Structures are given as structure tokens and as C-alpha cells.
Amino acid sequence: MAGMIKDLRARPFDLPLVEPFIIATGRKDAANNVLVEVELDNGTIGYGEVAPSPYTTGDTPATCIAVIEQLRPLVIGKDVRQWRSLLGQTRRAVRHQFGAHSGLEIAILDAFGKAVGVPLYQFFGGVSTRVESDYTLSLGSPEETAAAARKAIAAGFRKIKIKVGMGVATDVARVRAVREVGPDAELSLDANQAFSPQAAVELAHRLAAEGIEITLLEQPVRRDDIAGMRFVRERAGVPVGADESVFTPEDAIRVVREGAADVINIKVAKAGLLGALDIYSIARSANLDLMIGCMMESKVGLAASVHLACGLGCFTHCDLDSVFLLKPFDCAGGYTLTGPTFDVEGHGPGTGIELGKK
Ligand SMILES: [Mg+2]
After folding, report:
1. In this structure, which residues have their CB less than 5 angstroms from ion ligand 1?
2. How far is the CA of 343 from the centre of ligand 1 (A)?
3. What are the structural domains, with CATH classification, of the chain?
4. What is the pLDDT of residues 166-213, one digit of tens each?
5. In sequence order, what E strands does the chain have?
6. Among 110, 134, 171, 190, which one carries the catalytic annotation?
């Protein structure tokens, strides 16, 4: 059984979006990602991907590539079957740098899965083989938001996540417009840190007064304002989710200790696969609900999150919709997508991703 790592490579991986994506922290017209490849001595390649988000994670494509380049000597010549000690060393060698570690960890575990012949969802626990994603609506006018919602519902989505942060009155009008076109849709909101604690509570109360039910209010206030998160949680009357407030397991412990959220949004792009597993355990132990999210990953990186979500199960909110925002390219395997539902059964070991194939 071959498992020796022969090479580690990282390169820019630019992917056009179907249409611009606009949230409270900025606008994107293309995904400027990084592809990571771990090659084993028998030629097997493990694929990873990073979707750097300078504002959110502090990564750029150039920093991710530079960090992975720096980690090369630590990785080459190691046995991928000793992945935890190997990734412990890479984590100790360069602190933070969430994107680089995330892309590397996906590539290493994909190569590991391929080396031992196990699909990652089984490696993570094999709880289920399917997961249903929501669909995220960008910032825009009430009319634009409603039109996007109508399209998503027609495509089979039952769960709609609305980006908010345009001001309470505008956001109420936007959410109302979505509720009108999707009376049965499950609605959640993501403010990406845009509100003051008071404004977030006001938004929740005004929606409640109109009888509009919201299943989650994600990251209402600034990431470091843990007291503000708790203020919202205690008054809004809707579950509060921590996304940007939780990058590391230590962040998750802080949110649990402070009673600042009902739900933690785990993203492989923030925590890497190792951190994601730790945060999962912390949240479960503290009886918090779990969400899994993504950045602008293509199928290459997203497959790891899909396998993680299926393997662990019990994610009450799945926001794995980046692939719907990107134009298709030559990449096969990973999962089968039917409407909003990912199915990991029947694909190859690891994440099952094969690049250069349709
Ligand atoms: Mg979010």
C-alpha cells in the first residue's frame, strides 16, 4: 500500500461566477481560488482547494500559495497514512493561515482516502450519504431578491438564506418579498457582521410582528463583539448563529462559555478539516446546533465539506451552495447533485474528485 508523499503543489485556480455575488462585506465577480495537489509515490493525486477571502479569513491566493510552498519540505517524504501527526507538524510550523491549512488538509485527506480505498464520508463516520443545501440570496433590492428566490424555489430549493445588512427597513421589505414568493420556504438570514446589536434585535422583532418565521440569524454583529452576540441571542427570539466569530476550536469554546450563539457555522475554509472536527465535538458537547457552510469553493474543495456533513450527520443547517454560483468546468466525481441534494454514494475513495474529467 503506497502512501509516501512525493510532491506538494499549489497554483492559482480562477473560476468565473454565473453572476456577481454581493454581501455586506463586498462584491465578487469571480472566485480567485487556489488548487492544492498532493502526489503520492504511486502517482495518486489528492486534490484540495482554498477559496481565500481577504476580508473574512485574511488570506489571499498569493499568501496561501506562499505558505504551502513553505510547508513543502515538511510534507514531502512523509507517509500520508500518518496524516494527523503530519498535519500537526504543518499547523505548528505556520500559525493561523486558515486558507493554506484548509487546502492542504483537504488534499492530504483526499490522498489518504485514495491510498487506503475509503471514501471520506465513511472515514468521518458514514452517518448518512445525502445532505440538502439551502440557497443563498445576495444583497439587492426587494424586487431583485424576490426574483432570485423565485428562481431558487423553481430549481427545487426548500431552504433559502437571505444576506441582510442593508438597513432594517430595507431588509424587512426584502425578507417579506421572499416570503411572498416562497410561503413554505424555510428562511434564514446572514448579516455578515453588519448590524449593531440593537438593530439586529429590531430586525428580528419587526419580522416576528409580521408573522415571518426565521430559523436562524447568522452573525448579526461584529465577529469580536461576543457580548453583542449574546445581547441579540437573549432578545431577538430567533436562534443566533456564529460564523465569523468562530474560526478555531478556541473561538468555539469562547462562544459556548459566553452563551453567545445557538448554532455554530463550521466551515472547512476557516478551520480546516482538523479544526472542523474539533469544533464539531465542542458544539455537540455543549448541545449547540451545527451548521456547515462554505466560501466560494468549486466542487474540488466543496466535496470535502459535503463528505464531512454526510459522514458526521446532524447538521441542522447546510449552506453548501457555492457550486451553484460557479460556472461548470472539467471536474468529475465527489458527489451527485440533484436539485439541492448532494449524494456521496457511488464515487471513488477520498473525496472522489477527478480533475480534467466531465
Ligand atoms: Mg455566514
Report:
1. 190, 218, 243
2. 23
3. 5-117 (3.30.390.10), 122-355 (3.20.20.120)
4. 999 999 999 999 999 999 999 999 999 999 999 999 999 999 999 999
5. 5-23, 26-40, 45-50, 130-132, 135-137, 159-163, 186-190, 217-218, 240-242, 263-267, 289-293, 317-318, 331-332, 336-338, 341-343, 354-355
6. 190
